[in-house]
Amino acid sequence: PDLSNKPGPGRPGFGPTGDPYEFKFEVTGQVQIKAIPAIAGQTFTITWQDGTTLVTTGSTTINSPVASGIISINKEGDNTYCDEFAVNDFNASRANVTKVISWGENPWSNLAAAFDGCTNLTSVSETSLITSDGNLQAIFRNCTGLTEAVCNNWNLAAGSIIADIFNGCTNLTKLDFTGV
Q: What pLDDT digit, counting tens, does each position of 40-53 carry?
């Protein structure tokens, strides 16, 4: 049977199972990120690609372990959640990001240039993204490896800056922005 329209985790290519509350992205090595909480001074959890965890109040320079796998941020039950994120231009950080799997269930206030220059990012999965008057400017700028971005479940009703969102994505062959 054709399973391409089947909703949920049973659908081929849905991605790893786990907590839908979390923001998840896939990497092939170490990355340095900026992750800031929605409420200054409160904590949120990062689960690294090697399975270790970090409970943090956020920083502009957080280094992951050297490993391949999925990084998840915003564990359900944390004091607060990360609502500002970006991959830093540090060593090969940006080249090590390959896929955005899930945006999680929390509203984002700042994803400006979050994946800017992540040249090996190939896919943005069909998943919900919610903003709270968010800045998405240049979120995927210069992601030259990006071939597919399914953004039809994004909720930008609270208002968002989306200028240059796919600027420089020269290999983008599938873009679905219809539900926005």
A: 999 999 999 999 99
Residue type, 34: K
Task: Please report, for residues 2, 11, 56, 70, the alpha-carbon distance to residue 115 in angstroms, rounded to integers and kept in the order given.
Answer: 33, 26, 21, 15
| CA separation for the pair 177, 16 (Å, rounded) | 24
Kindly indicate the confidence band of residue 18, based on its pLDDT and cuts at 50, 70 and 90: low
Report d(CA 175, CA 173) in Å as an integer.
7
Closest Cα to residue 85, out of 119, 113, 64, 120?
113
Do 86 and 28 form a contact (C-beta atoms < 8 A)? no
Model pTM score: 0.87
